[in-house]
Amino acid sequence: MPRPGPPEPVTSALLREWLPEHEERGTVLVVGGARRTPGAVLLAGIAALRTGAETLQLAIAERHASGLGLAVPEALVVGLPETGSGAISRAAVDVLGELVGEAASVVVGPGLTDPDETTALLEGLLPLVRGPVVLDAFALGALGTHPALGDPVRGRMVLTPNTVEAGYLLGEEVDDHVEAAAAIAGKHDAVVNLMGVVAAPDGRVWRDSTGHVGLSTSGSGDVLAGLVGGLLARDPDLARATCWAGHVHAMAGQRLVPRTGLTGMLARELLAEVPQVLVELRSR
């Protein structure tokens, strides 16, 4: 693959230059949360609210819907049909159709488990999406195996892979994050956030060096996906929102280090830091 040019550094000054003159506040829909992984939807959903989404809708395995509704009283919670193994069933498309079409942004993947059911779910769901969509976790594996799944939302996708998921999307082992992010962005016509590198399909690349190893904690990727979804509900520019989300995610982690160190950080602790990070970034 051709090597992209040097990435532009993501800085607070750059992000402030990108502040839109007028911001909307739309609805974010998060789809995921199988039987064994309901917390992923909670993390992503609260992250979207913390970035200023006007309303939040959470779609999760039916058995967890009531509990999640109590845990996140700010959200509309929809129960989804499950398979016998507890995965979200492909039949969830019938439940989600109207919500997906009306959402300002959609996040699909946090807490999904079964590869075959996830593939079928995306096949039915993505053609119904009207705005930008964020794919994370098992949704990325499905897209990597079946690239045509992304055709209905080409040019409107943000992908948030870790290194392993990036390998699935690329079809080969990842050696260089900049090269891999750029190649995935071009292959899938999507904006990609890979380990602090953001790449757009038109060849633009940015690198955010603010992150640290503490952000590899379990659930941190769900928070990042939710941040992207929340910011896309305010500003539909995919690259701009993704760079903002990555920097907010990293800065929230930096604020926790004095209290938790690098190895004691919990993903849910990032959420409380997000509003203050946004205030600081926008006011300096």
TrEMBL record:
Binding site for (6S)-NADPHX: A40, G111, D222
One term of GO molecular function: NAD(P)HX epimerase activity
The UniProt record lists the keyword NAD: yes
Catalytic activity reported: (6S)-NADPHX + ADP = AMP + phosphate + NADPH + H(+); (6S)-NADHX + ADP = AMP + phosphate + NADH + H(+)
PROSITE patterns linked: YJEF_C_3
UniProt gene name: nnrD
Protein name: ADP-dependent (S)-NAD(P)H-hydrate dehydratase
Family per similarity comment: Belongs to the NnrD/CARKD family.
GO biological process: metabolite repair; nicotinamide nucleotide metabolic process
Superkingdom in the source lineage: Bacteria
Organism: Saccharothrix syringae (Nocardiopsis syringae)
Lyase listed as a keyword: yes
Assembly, per entry: Homotetramer.
UniProt-listed Gene3D superfamilies: 3.40.1190.20
Enzyme class: lyase
